[in-house]
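Need a sequence for this fold. Nothing fancy.
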């Protein structure tokens, strides 16, 4: 209680609104009295967008929740805010920012990494252990740069009257991954596999296996047989997609670029027809001006399985 009162009165400016205090109080309460860990796997869409700013869609990010932990794949712009909404409005406490301790990145493109700085600066004084980050080797450079970026702020706060006990702030441990099993703890096995995102090598997809679900994430990729192989028999295949109708309106140069880096609706339908997941979830949708319904129909007209086009904060 003492800690709660101190935190409430000396919090950051951004938290000192009535709403902020409510948020801080809710977080402390949740940390103090965690619910029993659910043994049912939940998949939450923290962001379904692309590099194109969209008020309705945060950048790409998918969270898998199991056994009281969250495993977050990519962290596009706006996804930390969506994680707070998921924790407070959907009751998924494992997604409160200080509870996120496992991050997996598909590749280094900024639409997938933009909220990493947001996550490490959100409530950093809570003394949580280091975040464990898994991804290509370039993430060491990204994390080193991030540390430099936040250091003036941290130093200023440490010299201020903020009652922060810990002199070494929590940060990030980088685990450079290769194709194969990259994580095996707490009943969760996570494997990375190579996909084809143009000349950006390596770019990964992920397969997540829990006691009750198998989930495969395509990452950013054009048509790729590794996705088919990994997704055979999966409960959920989350796949990126671009609209063929929208793509046809672009210049020849942009069409060529996108064909090399991303999957058309027809290619996604082909992948799903061969892998036969129980559920196909479309996200990271490049609409290029086409409607949600038309992208969905482009896939549905060539794939007879169950398919949905995800919105932010959808749960599967
Ligand atoms: Zn992307
Ligand atoms: Zn990309």
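Here you go.
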């Amino acid at each position: 209680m003492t800690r709660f009162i101190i935190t409430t009165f000396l919090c950051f400016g951004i938290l000192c609104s009535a709403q902020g205090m409510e948020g801080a109080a809710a977080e402390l309460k949740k940390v103090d009295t965690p619910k029993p860990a659910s043994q049912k796997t939940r998949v939450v869409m923290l962001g379904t967008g692309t590099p194109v700013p969209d008020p309705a869609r945060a950048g790409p990010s998918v969270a898998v929740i199991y056994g009281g932990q969250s495993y977050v794949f990519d962290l596009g712009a706006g996804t930390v805010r969506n994680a707070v909404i998921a924790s407070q409005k959907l009751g998924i406490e494992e997604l409160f920012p200080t509870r996120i301790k496992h991050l997996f990145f598909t590749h280094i493109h900024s639409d997938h990494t933009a909220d990493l700085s947001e996550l490490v600066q959100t409530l950093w004084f809570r003394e949580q252990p280091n975040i464990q980050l898994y991804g290509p080797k370039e993430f060491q450079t990204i994390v080193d740069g991030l540390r430099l970026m936040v250091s003036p702020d941290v130093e200023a706060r440490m010299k201020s009257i903020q009652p922060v006990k810990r002199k070494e702030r929590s940060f990030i441990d980088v685990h450079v991954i290769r194709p194969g099993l990259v994580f095996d703890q707490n009943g969760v096995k996570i494997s990375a596999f190579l996909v084809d995102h143009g000349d950006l090598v390596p770019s990964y997809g992920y397969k997540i296996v829990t006691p009750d679900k198998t989930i495969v994430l395509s990452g950013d990729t054009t048509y790729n047989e590794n996705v088919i192989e990994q997704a055979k028999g999966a409960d959920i295949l989350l796949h990126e997609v671009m609209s063929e109708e929208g793509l046809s309106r672009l210049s020849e140069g942009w069409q060529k670029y996108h064909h090399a880096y991303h999957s058309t609706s027809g290619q996604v339908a082909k992948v799903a027809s061969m892998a036969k997941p129980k559920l196909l979830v479309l996200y990271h949708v490049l609409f290029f001006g086409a409607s949600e319904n038309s992208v969905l129909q482009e896939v549905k007209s060539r794939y007879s399985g169950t398919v949905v086009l995800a919105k932010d904060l959808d749960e599967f």
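For context: Residues 1-27 have pLDDT under 50 and may be disordered.
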